[in-house]
Amino acid sequence: MLIAIWGDELSAWVAAAELARTGNEVLLQQSTPSESSHRAEPGLMESLATGMAAGRIRLCHHQEAVQAPWHWLASHPADISQAETLCHQLRRQGPDNLVLINQSNFGIGASDRLHALLDHARQQSLVCLPDTLQQGQALQQFATPETLLVGCEETDARLRLRALLRPFSLRLQQIQWMSRREAEFSKFAISGMLALRLGYINELANLADRLGVDIEVVRQGMSSDKRIGPHYLAPGCGFGGHHFTQYIEGLADILAEARHSTLLNTVLSENERQKELPFRKLWQHYRCDLQGRRIAIWGCAFKPGVASVDNAPSLRVIRALLAQGAQVQVHDPEALPALQNALGRVAGLSLHQDPYHAARETDALLLLTEWPQYSSPDYARLLRSMQTPLIVDGRNLFEPDYLRQLGFTYYGVGR
Amino acid sequence: MDKQRAWQQLEQLSASESTLHLRDLLQVEDRFSRFSFRQDELLLDLSRQRLTAATLTHLLQLADSCDLAGWIEALFTGERINHTENRAALHTALRLPANATLMHRGEELVAQVQTDLARMQRRVEQLHQGQWRGFSGEPIDTLVNVGVGGSDLGPMMVCQALDSFQPAQARRITTHFISSMDGSQISGLLDQLDPARTLFVIASKSFSTADTLANAATALDWLVRASGLPPELLSRHHFIAVTANAARAEAWGIPMDNQLHFRDWVGGRYSLWSTIGLAIAVRIGMEGFRQLLDGAHRMDLHFRHTPFSHNLPVLLALTEVWNINFLGIHAHAILPYDGRLAHLPAYLEQLEMESNGKSVDRQGKRIDYHTCPVLWGEIGPNAQHAFYQLLHQGSEAVMCDFIVPARRYADQSDALQSQHRLTLANCLAQARVLALGDAAVDQSHATPWQRYRGNQPSTLILLDELTPASLGALIALYEHKVFVQSVIWNINPFDQWGVELGKRVAGELLDAIGTPARRDRFDVATEGVLDQLYRRWSDGEGHPC
Hints:
heterodimer, A: Rossmann fold, N-(1-d-carboxylethyl)-l-norvaline Dehydrogenase, domain 2, Rossmann fold, six-stranded parallel beta sheet, B: alpha/beta, six-stranded mixed beta sheet, 46% helix
């Protein structure tokens, strides 16, 4: 099938790679993702290169792309007017029976508005397929989804979409068909629910800190309740990322506007506070004076497996430390270039390829991203090389009692 | 011409002009163009004042006879015109652009002022970036300005007036003002604040103001109890001193690095332009603060270099001198037709009455003419429902200042724009009725109680719009007006000895509160109340109840 890809979001590029891999002919408007964090998505660039080498992915002129029978749209939330222009063009120049699959986060009701711009007399229609990909494992998630939420209100389009997605249904247990508006709402609702869970467990962790309770024990207790389950219940120093935050901000705005509700805005602002938690623990430990202290940071990516620092806690923590006159030494297996890009060259900040170099001569080690390689470090080496053996574990990755036994001062989140 | 002669001529003129009524003066075709004056974004309309061309001529002669030009130069060049305290009054130096220079007693002042401002800017940016941290490590999001008089009224007035000029990064900081000695403001406020995120600005020129230090002590105590941390640590992270007395602030516990300074040549009621304006800079950003300074500076240049016949502060001052000394008007109402200027009357009460509320001249002689009138005010439209009755039909002659912006809500709803039109209509209507009285409309069937005498003079100040720059110009206009009047009255507007004695006596009385009254220590009235207090504090036997 001939499919034109529009937009520069991660899901646009993942769709291009995966659709080409399964034999479709894919038309692009640009040859590589603009955002470095998208280019760093594991396997993506290789897969795109393979598709291009095989001739199944090619660049083409806008005019040619408009005439394709399939269109895949994954644009930035701010680019809705370009999407409208595209729909106008598709109405005029696109073929009969055209299907436009919208994965952009334009807000609830946007898919209906775009659909209205198409030529329904010629059976042109828009399908809303909310983007559920997570950075770091996007290709695999696209290839083998377990469930799909699809906003599609035309029987013809439904049949054609089923055919297009057929190669990706190996593990598919269910396709939930619903209206476009319901599909958009569901995506928002899922993101909001996850954010609420994270906000709630962090709130509990901060309380546990004060009450001398270990939140990890409490969390296991909560998870064992079937109504609750284990997902999105890990306390830590806040969630970041680009995509997730965008959806929650979008939903928070809708709730604030339509209902004067502050529920999700509170979750968001508390999350911003939570990102600075490791800084606060350190600040309190050193009696409100970090001037001249040397601080190591392990992990600056917003989560393990990504090279991106979008909305990452590390940004806030590093800025806070530098503002207090501390020297900051950062290690991250993948996201150092992104960090350099986000902060520019600043005095007091150094980036290290080796985690033990970053920890050398430091007054504290802050763990902000739970990369697997940090889980069992050479503690003896750390004890030898750190000025003060103090660890602030922003992800509850380590075993507190063991570290204390070794001679570390340990602060976790809620333990 | 000597001053006595000029004064006598004005007295004669007032006798011959006493029968003039504003309803007749306002019949003259070109009156508005002859009696209104513009300086950049500000129009001073004196056409509803009981002035004639002759009055103005003689008033200008009076100004010349007092060597006003010489005094203005003395003000700007830093002569010690505050002679009772042996100081200059150089608030105008605070508003000079960074590239200017001004030598004063062997020191280059502009560089010093800019250094003080740069230190303030660093703190403002730190707050706006969320990088001033409290004891828990949370960013400060609440600023409490603790000060009284000039350390309170100016910053509070400007913060309220320019609230809509808050840049995005300033919105994270909420500002409160605490002044009253009795603790009623601070006790209510502290209940609502998070100690971990609150920063106190202790603003006191001398750092010995009892009211301010009492509030500061309460604030510190609150922080100690909330955090369990030692006071030294808390005063380092939750207090900034703004003062001209670094040593006293340091002795109180605020380290040098957390102090912002201004100099003894800045009077308290002229200090909002200095680092005392920290709360303003936090609210509207340093850029807005510099626009405020620039507006005032342009008024300074106008005042210093424009011939008196077109000089706004001079003309405003002389007009009021005419009202006070020759027409016998001793009450002055300040009536802003813009709710953002709600604190302007209180601010001007201090500026005018503390500056010129005096009756001993520069040579130490008691004077036999009136000086500063009683001044009060309120947001005009609200005052219409309160004291305008007295303005229109009372027995007192009152002069009024109407202050209103021409444009407002330009980019907002039609409903709000029509509210502004309604406000303008009311402002003009009140000025018109005060001036014309019954002649404003057909009053042929009015009862005696419905009659309006008119002939109450008023000034209208029309700002193009209320901005940091136009507000700066407006305040400078009043400052310089006050100065011109002090020159005519031959008094020192920059001291305030009249507020000292009460403080001293309060110090003596403090020990006597709650103890059995001793005779012959104070006066019978004071001793009587002391005795009543003692009885109500104890069971009469000396035991506390």
